[in-house]
Hints:
6 helices; Ribosomal_uL10; 2 domains; five-stranded antiparallel beta sheet
Amino acid sequence: MSKNRAEKAEIIEEIGEKLNEYPIIYLTNFEGLTVAQSNDLRGRFREAGVEYQVTKNTLARLALDRIEGKDALEEFFAGPTAIAFSEDPAKPARVLQDFLEEEELGRPELKVAWIEGDMYDDPEALDTLAELKSREELIGEVIGRLLAPAQNLVGGLQGPGQRLSGLLQSLADEEEDE
Length: 178
């Protein structure tokens, strides 16, 4: 069933908003997936908090034309294309990597990952991107490192005090025994 101009304009607008809103965009070739596999993949993306949609290349290119700075993605809208939109660079890569390992299909293929202005279109990029830490993990590490010196200081101050307390207790015990 063909879509009318108004429906197509709405789709172009929706894709354009997402392309503009999300700093992380993955384009994949989903060719060769069964309906069940495709639905499974969509569910995995949804669980990870990643928006995933199949789109017509023509409509996606028209949406790209309206957005500044992401026109380099246009060449990757060829053949069957699905777009994953995310705030976290590692989540889509982890979903794809897990799916590829479990299904052993070699599909979907990563066409390109757009990570805040940088493009990764190397087949090995998926492994590298999947290993990236999330923003929350990085914040946790920074906080841990900032707190470590204070914890070491407290431990250092408590150590001699505890030794002195133990020594005084031993002396007191000896006096009681005498």
